[in-house]
Automatic annotation (TrEMBL):
Name by which UniProt lists this protein: Diguanylate cyclase (GGDEF)-like protein
Source organism (scientific name): Motilibacter peucedani
InterPro entries in UniProt: Cyclic-di-GMP_PDE-like, EAL_dom, EAL_sf, GAF, GAF-like_dom_sf, GGDEF_dom, Nucleotide_cyclase, Rev_trsase/Diguanyl_cyclase
Signal peptide: none
Keywords from the UniProt entry: Membrane, Transmembrane, Transmembrane helix
Amino acid sequence: MVEGAERSPAGRLSLEATAGLGATALLGFGAVLWVALGHDTNLGSWRWLLALTLAFAATESLPIQIEVRRDTHGVHFSDMPVALGLFLLNPLGLALARSVGVLVGSLFTPVPLIKRLFNVALYVSTTLIAYSVQQLCSPHGHLGLAAGAGALLGVLLASAFEFAAVQGAIYLNEGTAPTAETGWTLWIALLAALFSGTVGVITYVLVEAGSWQPMLLVPLGLSFYVGYRVYGALLRRHVALGRLYETSRTVRPGQDLTGLERNLLQRAVELLNARSATLELTALADGTGPRRTTLGPSGVEVVDTLDDSVHAEVRRRQQPVLVTRSTADVELKAWLAGRDARDAVVVPLPSESGVIGTLEVTGHLAESRSFREEDLHLLETLATQAGFALENSSLLERLRLEATHDDLTGLVNRSQFMTEVAAEVRDDVPVAVCILDLDEFKDINDALGHTSGDQLLCAVAQRLLAAAPPQSTVARLGGDEFAVLLRRPGGEGEAERTARSLVDSLLQSVTLEGSVMDIEGSIGVALHPEHGRDATSLLQHADIAMYHAKDRRLGVRVFDDSLDDGTARRLALVAQLRQALRSRELVVYYQPKVQLSDDVLAGVEALVRWNHPTRGLVLPDEFIGAAEHTGLIAPLTTLVLDEAVAQCRAWLDEGKRIPVAVNVSVRALLDSAFVDEVAGVVRHHGVPGHLLTLELTETSIMDDRASAGEALTRIAELGVHISVDDFGTGYSSLAQLSRLPVHEVKIDKSFVFGMGTEANDEAVVNAVVQLAHHMGKVVVAEGVEDRLSLRKLEEMGCDIAQGYLFSRPLPPEKLATWIRDNLLYAPDAELRPAAKARPLRLVSRG
């Protein structure tokens, strides 16, 4: 494909037209000057005519070359014979000597004939300009201060005119405006003209004196010429290094990969004064496949194939190739011809992982020279820096992609989707958020396996991308849930029609594992600003509308306030909880329990946590209730039980005996398979039963004492301990609980909170401690958050305390740090305190 052309050639003049028009204009200008000078046809002394012709030929053949884009500006020191000829020849003779000398001196220079004609016309006109200025300053031509100054002034003005004419021709032909480098070139040309003209005037003075002193100017002139050539080489090197430094500032990691590639190509063209540049890249870290990018006069072209033999050889050998216009290699000549180029340089792109591609520059713009070894070394330096920059940018691109896109489908992920919604809302742009959930995806996934399920999700992603309007964002939020952000949807009706077209795009069947599957989905729509003024509320309301559509099989539902009565929200929460259980988004934290008699770690309580993707942290009290009412409590209990016992086994493997307590609902307890499940879990993980405690609320046990008692007895026979949670909030008594195999009583935190200020609460806690001890039960006080309550519990003889005074619930790895910082684990597998001074502190809830 071709895109972003740098500059259309339309409006430029061709080289032939530019040179032809320029030569005609210059010759016309010269003719006018000749007429103004008296159109003297006398050439002057033939001896001096021949000598100056040879001098012009010598200076023309030994120039200092300064490149200015396509053309090379030569500092020829021809102003020395010009200044001398102003005194020795007539205007026509001097113009003829210079023209013939220039033609002879440039015979072996590869310059097109039209340019030679342009140069001859230019030299004729500039010679006549110099003669005119000298005549104005010294009309009689006698040697003196006025004549010498006039000659120098004429030489300087002629040199400036010559430079301006060349720059004008370059502009007409290429459209290239003068730069800072052009200014430096002008100063060099004027300095050379001043020196050459001075030498010419001095030579004439010495010639007129008739002595041998003019011979002294020969070594002086040669020394200056050599010095100037060295200076010219240093200047070219300085310019090249300046460009290389500028490139190093712009070609660096962290840029967009495509922008970096094009910036590199542009810099390569400028650095080597080339017509075009090509970058071939093999597979990169961001997953980008092979591609070839070319920057030429007509713009940028990108193809996805690497079929160039020279580039392949450079990558294989890891060696650069310099192909000049004088190459004798037939294959390389054919390769250049295929590029319509006279010369080229190809270098490998090294990186930490090896050669990742090649960089080529083609067609030196200066027609008088080809690429050289110094150009190759410059390009190698650029390629070394570019290779590492490209690889690092590719790696950053991949990391950015992974952070913002779904690995499976390639769609935007939840985090990036939320960011984009928030950005549009912040700019007060009308948007519609569509949440789509597939129907019966779990059944397909269970029947055909996860591989087929993944294929189905990818198919859905492609259909949504094809059906979504331009400027929309399609995302996968997780599982079988997708989202589409519609920018400027055109109102509620139009948003609903678009959402329905998205649903309809799924209706075509898909074949998975030889089975034809129908895909259906439900979409909920919420609009900004009508249904929410922030990203979170828009997603919540779209979620509610989607579950309302799913529950009533509507296909599409736009949110309205009537849906937000709590019912739809609970339906959404239940569906999301079911998905969270399938994808194991729920995690288990552990809160330490401390034995008050000696500060020993008595165990931990396993507490489930759910970081909801859009609502943030959902409190267990909210979703546990929903789970109990919808049958999800059983798989939730199984998940927490298995995680907690597995963690207990991991601690045992480390030589630590840390009992774990798990909350169990009455629904789970009364399930006929629950006891067998508990037995299976402890047996599977190889954990002694007494290291597991099951906590049940007082009310749940007493509501169905007979059934609960039977289940508790069977659990106790496994060696598993039973704990009555939230004791004191129900209507039972310790006498009633004494008939059940209860090992532990936990005093509800509502009483513990009030101990420091409420005498009744303190009395209740004290009574429970004394009666429980009398009946042989262990007493645990939960919700301990201040030292006053802790001191009172110790005075009462309470066995174990739990609460934020000691620690908030922690993930296993942070609990290990807490144990290390607060307790010393003895070799006999008993937990001992690090010191009697209690290393406890009050921490904030969070």
